[in-house]
Write a structure and sequence with these properties.
about 65% helix, about 850 residues, Leucine-rich Repeat Variant, 4 domains, Transcription Elongation Factor S-II, Chain A, about 0% strand, Armadillo, coiled coil, two-stranded antiparallel sheet, ARM-type_fold, mainly alpha, ARM-like, Serine Threonine Protein Phosphatase 5, Tetratricopeptide repeat
Length: about 850
């Protein structure tokens, strides 16, 4: 058969005229638009030339797949592609160009062999690109379709880009709304964005907004194309922040979480995009907040140690209890625990959605593990040895991680522990981890003997213990005893010990707001709410949770640290560890010392010597110094001083220091340091006053120092300042008076504190807490805290109604709320 180039000019001219004449007569539908079927004019011309067309309809076109050159073709017969390429010329009528590009679209759908025939003609790409701006929708759609097929071939992508297709498509998507063209145009971007060069042109707010909006489209093709483009853009990490700013994370997460919202292709592209974005820590948190979990892919062989359900009794989440309505019947495999009664004891005869999803997820993951269809790694990952992760919904992901924790493989268990720690960033996730049964596995792994795993578990428990409910569960599984055992081990490194101190401090620390509630005497009110018929279900639930927390505080779970022999190691860390961890150790000892028996145990363990060494390390003749091992940051050092001062006060309430002179000298030096912040001096002066009271002076070698103007302050200045605290004076005068009193008491003299209390300042200071300015309120809390070091002032403080005011400050989280809490704790219960 002759090729087009050998056709006579008369036949070529006839073909051109025949297309124009017939297409205007029979190629249009009743609305004047072109039909989706093959135009009759093309059929007649091809028949006249001895060719034929055997193509599919346009609505059946998919992405190009390379095909062979068998006789069963779908494109134009050899030699006649050039006819339609010539018809694309700008000098031809729009209708002819449209029919030509539609024919070429059908031809290009055959695969690389047919696309090669089109690309043999120089300049054809420029003509096709020019049709993207056509006012005829069918022509623009066909042009986009041809470019989509051509750009799917790697060797032609650069040619498509050089022809200006990228710029034309960007303009088409941002300035024109043509639904029929948008999908094919976006698929061209999907193909081109595989290369690094075109990506830079796609990263601009306007086009990213268009792609982001297409993720929510009702058309599957548009969602797939937009997700594919965005997934390619995430291959360049420098564009991550721009992608996050346009809000693609919630929309990509919706595609994964909503089973009916996306196709398999769009879900896979969305997953790839989110996994790449999640490599940056701050973006990973945003993805987790959307309800997704990063789960390590550990390989199918790791699940061989999984025990099927028939070999171990099934369990329910910790928060769900079965109400047994009949005598318990023995069950071989534990099914009786699930089948007997099945009356949920959680309020309302029903379990919450989180517990239900956790139960379903656990059953689903155990079934998949039993049949061996999870954990398969890709061949590339197995060859490279790199860790691979996948994204799952939180109810499947968390239960999968807990399942991995139960496998007899410490290497994969470590990956699961680290993954659980990374998702414990909000209250919902923490409670979901606890409900899924992760706490027993984590506590068990503390004693596995692997230091790296113990460190990872400790860090995870520290994050989980932020939740009040989860902290109770951790304590109920004796995690503190396991931590103390590791702390006592001679093989434990200093890094692990420091992390253990942080976890013990978190687990041992009573909820501060809860302590304030106890001090305020509101327990009876909570009981009234629970028993009231008028209270709503939400109010009763909140009251019951608070009462449960109060009951857990009474059990004193922190006592296990003392009985387990952890005190010497805490004192050692306070002396030698870096400042942040040393501060944690001091805070933990302060919490332990609130119990009188623990305070005596701490004193017997040598805390007095440790305090002196720690303070000397921080201050030497009122100058911050450094040691060979530790470089002290001035701000961290001051916080450490405050923690040590609180420890001195707490111990002094229940025990007597043997030789307080050295401590007193160092504390006085700190007070004389002009650069020390005033709030730090508040803590130091209060501890010095308490030390002086309980020890009856510091001995003959270091008597209580008296200042030159001591008598003037006691007899004149302090009474005058207390009078100015009265409501008859202006707010400015009262603020100045209480600030001056605070400065005097920061000198650490017990006589000054006695003079202030004797002048009747307590009632006026309590009034300032209610009606004073922020500065006056902060100074008042500081003065009252210093006065509370003398127990003789406690009745006056309680009579002045100080407790409710302090509780309100703690609840409002004002800047001085922590000092207010410690003042509450100093008052009698």
């Amino acid at each position: 058969m002759a090729i087009v180039g050998k056709l006579s000019p008369s036949i070529s001219y006839f073909a051109k005229r025949k297309i124009l004449g017939v297409s205007t007569q029979s190629g249009n539908n009743s609305d004047g638009e072109l039909d989706d079927s093959t135009p009759p004019a093309i059929d007649e011309v091809l028949n006249y030339l001895g060719a034929s067309y055997e193509g599919d309809s346009l609505n059946k076109f998919e992405r190009v797949e390379e095909r062979g050159t068998s006789e069963d073709t779908i494109g134009l017969q050899e030699g006649y592609v050039g006819v339609f390429v010539r018809l694309l010329g700008l000098d031809n009528p729009e209708v002819e160009r449209e029919e030509a590009v539609r024919a070429l679209w059908r031809h290009s759908a055959g695969g690389k062999y047919y696309i090669d025939q089109i690309m043999e003609f120089p300049g054809c790409l420029n003509l096709i690109v020019s049709l993207l701006r056509s006012h005829r929708t069918a022509a623009a759609e066909a042009a986009a379709g041809v470019l989509r097929n051509i750009s799917s071939i790697e060797t032609y992508r650069s040619a498509v880009t050089e022809a200006g297709a990228l710029e034309e498509i960007l303009g088409l998507l941002t300035r024109r709304d043509i639904p029929e063209v948008r999908e094919h145009a976006t698929c061209v971007l999907w193909n081109l964005s595989v290369e690094e060069g075109p990506r830079a042109k796609l990263v601009n707010p306007e086009i990213l907004q268009v792609l982001s909006s297409m993720l929510g489209s009702e058309k599957d093709g548009e969602r797939e194309a937009a997700a594919g483009v965005l997934a390619n853009l995430t291959q360049s990490s420098c564009y991550s922040d721009e992608l996050v700013k346009v809000g693609i994370i919630p929309k990509l997460a919706k595609i994964l979480l909503d089973d009916g919202h996306g196709t398999k292709v769009s879900r896979q592209e969305a997953k790839n995009a989110l996994i790449r974005l999640g490599q940056e820590r701050h973006i990973e948190h945003l993805i987790i907040e959307e309800g997704l979990v990063f789960v390590p892919v550990i390989g199918a062989s790791a699940y061989r140690s999984f025990k099927p359900l028939l070999q171990e009794a099934p369990t329910l989440p910790e928060s769900v209890d079965v109400l047994q309505t009949a005598p318990k019947v023995p069950s071989t495999f534990g099914a009786g625990n699930l089948l007997l009664g099945l009356n949920w004891e959680s309020r309302g005869n029903d379990i919450d959605d989180a517990s239900r999803l956790i139960i379903e997820g656990r059953v689903r993951q155990q079934f998949l593990a039993r049949v061996g269809v999870i954990g398969k790694k890709s061949s590339k990952t197995e060859e490279s040895g790199d860790e691979q992760v996948t994204l799952m919904s939180w109810w499947d992901g968390i239960t999968r991680l807990v399942l991995i924790l139960g496998l007899d493989n410490l290497n994969v268990a470590k990956q699961a522990v680290q993954a659980l720690g990374s998702i414990a960033i909000n209250e919902d996730n923490r409670q979901a981890i606890q409900k899924s049964g992760a706490i027993p596995h984590l506590v068990r792994l503390l004693g596995c003997g692997d230091e790296d795993i113990a460190l990872a578990v400790t860090s995870t428990l520290n994050k989980l213990a932020i939740s009040r409910q989860v902290r109770r569960s951790i304590n109920s599984h004796n995690a503190q005893l396991a931590l103390v055992a590791i702390l006592n081990s001679v093989e434990t490194s200093d890094d692990v010990r420091e992390e253990m101190v942080c976890a013990l401090s978190r687990l041992s620390k009573a909820e501060e707001e809860m302590e304030a509630v106890i001090q305020d005497g509101t327990i009876s009110g909570l009981i009234d709410i629970v028993s009231s018929e008028r209270a709503s279900i939400e109010e009763k639930e909140e009251a019951e949770e608070i009462l449960e927390e109060v009951a857990s505080l009474k059990s004193e779970p922190r006592d296990g640290i003392v009985t387990g022999g952890g005190l010497p190691h805490l004192l050692k860390i306070m002396e030698r560890a870096s400042v942040p961890y040393a501060e944690q150790a001091a805070c933990l000892l302060d919490e332990l010392a609130t119990n009188s028996s623990n305070a005596n145990a701490i004193l017997a363990a040598g805390v007095e010597s440790s305090l002196s060494k720690s303070l000397k390390l921080l201050f030497d003749e009122v100058t911050v110094v450094t040691s060979d091992e530790i470089v002290l940051d001035r701000e961290d050092g001051y916080r450490f001083v405050a923690a040590l001062s609180r420890l001195v006060q707490t111990i002094a309430r229940s025990a007597k220091f043997e030789n307080p002179s050295e401590l007193a000298k160092i504390l006085r030096n700190i007070l004389q340091d002009e650069s020390a912040p005033l709030n730090i001096k508040d803590w130091v002066s209060a501890s010095l006053i308490k030390l002086e009271q309980v020890c009856k002076g510091f001995g003959e070698d270091n008597p209580v120092e008296a200042f030159v103007d001591f008598e003037v302050h006691v007899r004149d200045t302090i009474p005058w300042l207390v009078r100015e605290l009265g409501p008859d004076f202006s707010p400015i005068v009262r603020e100045r008076a209480v600030t001056h009193l605070r400065l005097l008491l920061c000198q650490g003299s017990n006589a000054y504190a006695t003079a202030v209390a004797s002048a009747g300042a307590v009632d006026k200071l309590a009034d300032l807490l209610k009606s004073g300015s922020d500065i006056a309120r902060a100074a008042s809390v500081s003065v009252l805290y210093t006065l509370s070091m003398n127990e003789e002032n406690h009745p006056a403080m309680l009579a002045a109604g100080l407790a409710p005011c302090l509780v309100e400050l703690v609840r409002r989280k004002v800047p001085e709320w922590r000092l207010a809490f410690y003042l509450l704790r100093a008052l009698p219960k």
